[in-house]
Amino acid sequence: MSGRVEALLTHAGGCHCGRVRFECRAAARPTVLDCDCSICRMSGFLHLIVPAVHFRLLQGADHLREYTFHTGVARHLFCSVCGIKSFYVPRSHPDAYDVNVRCLDPNTLTQYTLRVFRDADRASETAALAHLGEVT
User: Fold this and answer.
1) What is the mean pLDDT of residues 118-133?
2) Domains in the chain with CATH codes
3) pLDDT, tens only, 73-96
4) What is the rounded CA–CA span in Å between residue 110 and residue 76?
């Protein structure tokens, strides 16, 4: 890390039907993760992890449904109408939110650095990314 603090921008997004809307504050060009675990691979989720204080649900709490599996730590939240998971609480960062970059509004996030997250090496991958859930 360079020690330089990058200015945060507000990025907005939501589910397919528009009932769930949120905003998050993140760098203009953040690190985005492409996880190869079964659920991420099958759903095409691209991860932007933000501290909980940088995430705000604007509408649709009453439409969210939760799915958990394996350890039960990750809280996968889906719109009950269209089925899209636009964000969730990740197992790797249970005090943060993980936003699906593909659910951000067009032109909200135009550039990012893509990093592969190898689920088979979850412990060291998670340790290397611990800083993503920290408030800067």
Assistant:
1) 66
2) 30-133 (2.170.150.70)
3) 678 899 999 999 999 998 888 889
4) 25
CA dist 68 and 10 (Å) reads: 28
To the nearest whole number, what is the mean pLDDT of the chain? 86
Query: CA–CA distance from 47 to each of 2, 99, 111 (Å)?
Result: 22, 6, 14
Residue type, position 19, single letter: R
Compute the distance between CA of residue 70 and CA of residue 64 in angstroms, rounded to an integer: 20
Tokens representing 84 are 């899209």
* pLDDT 10s digits, 56-75: 999 999 999 988 777 766 78
Q: Looking at the DSSP assignment, which residues form a beta bridge with residue 24? A: 11, 55
* Structure tokens, 46: 């691209």
